[in-house]
């Protein structure tokens, strides 16, 4: 007897869906590396299961529950953090053996992992509703923005008159949302809280935490003391 899908999932007909990459992130070389990696999996050159040798495996149900949307997810969605791979991939989602899979690099930044696992889980629930990967990614990102980066919270960190964000403050902002600082900047730009010029300038900031906690504030005059 088929297992009943969780209440926030709709049944998905896999008879018309084969093994394939759903969303492939990163630069063209990183995407090519992901495709090569997945092709090796399809050819049996390496194995996902049993877990341990090539990847640490976990379930994505907690992420599905946090997204709180009734979408046609695969019956099982798993997260694989790949170990000892030479492939320079960023992250990608795929359907494989009638399961949804999210592939991440073991040892990746904690905030990257948090953001990608939400984004790629959403892509598996949305993939049957969008005709292009670009439109799928836009919709998935919007869902994750709404969940992890609420507009009112992002607004509290940005103003139109900001000219500089110190490295320690960038680290504090990323820590507050548990996503990479550039992702927060994309959300701020989308909400028109910063201009294109500010976005380009702030993208050059490399977050760096202080050893002692600091109060969150935004420098207006370039003083980062």
Concise account of the structure shown:
This protein is of the alpha+beta class and 225 residues long.
What is the strand and helix layout of this fold?
Layout: E1 20-24, H1 28-42, E2 55-59, H2 61-67, E3 77-82, E4 91-96, E5 99-105, H3 110-126, H4 133-148, H5 151-155, H6 167-177, H7 181-190, H8 196-203
Helix pairs in contact: 3-4, 7-8
Order of helices and strands: EHEHEEEHHHHHH
Helical residues, percent: 25-40%
Overall average pLDDT: 86
Distance between the termini: 65 Å
Radius of gyration: 19 Å
The biggest sheet amounts to: 5 strands, mixed
* Class by alpha and beta content: alpha+beta
The share of residues in extended strands comes to 5-15%
Annotation field: number of helices: 8
Bulk shape: globular
Task: Explain what this protein looks like in three dimensions.
The chain has 225 residues and is α+β, with helices and mostly antiparallel strands. 40% of the residues lie in helices and 13% in strands. The protein has helices at residues 28-42, 61-67, 110-126, 133-148, 151-155, 167-177, 181-190, 196-203; strands spanning 20-24, 55-59, 77-82, 91-96, 99-105. It has a 5-stranded mixed β-sheet with strand order 1-4-5-3-2, with helices on both faces. The termini are far apart.
List keywords for this structure.
alpha+beta; 8 helices; disordered C terminus; 13% strand; 225 residues; single chain
């Amino acid at each position: 007897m088929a297992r009943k899908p969780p209440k926030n999932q709709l049944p998905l007909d896999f008879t018309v869906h084969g093994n394939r990459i759903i969303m492939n992130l990163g630069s063209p070389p990183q995407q090519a590396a992901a495709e090569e990696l997945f092709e090796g999996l399809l050819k049996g050159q390496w194995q996902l299961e049993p877990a341990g040798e090539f990847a640490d495996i976990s379930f994505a149900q907690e992420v599905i529950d946090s997204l709180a949307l009734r979408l046609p997810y695969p019956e099982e969605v798993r997260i694989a953090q790949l170990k000892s791979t030479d492939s320079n991939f960023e992250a990608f989602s795929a359907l494989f053996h009638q399961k949804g899979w999210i592939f991440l690099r073991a040892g990746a930044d904690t905030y990257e992992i948090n953001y990608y696992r939400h984004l790629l889980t959403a892509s598996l629930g949305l993939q049957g509703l969008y005709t292009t990967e670009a439109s799928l990614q836009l919709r998935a990102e919007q869902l994750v923005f709404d969940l992890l980066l609420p507009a009112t919270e992002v607004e509290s960190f940005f103003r139109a008159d900001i000219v500089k964000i110190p490295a320690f403050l960038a680290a504090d902002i990323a820590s507050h949302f548990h996503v990479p600082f550039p992702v927060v900047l994309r959300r701020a730009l989308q909400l028109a809280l910063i201009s294109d010029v500010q976005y380009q300038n702030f993208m050059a900031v490399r977050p760096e935490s202080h050893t002692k906690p600091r109060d969150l504030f935004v420098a207006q005059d370039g003083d980062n003391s």
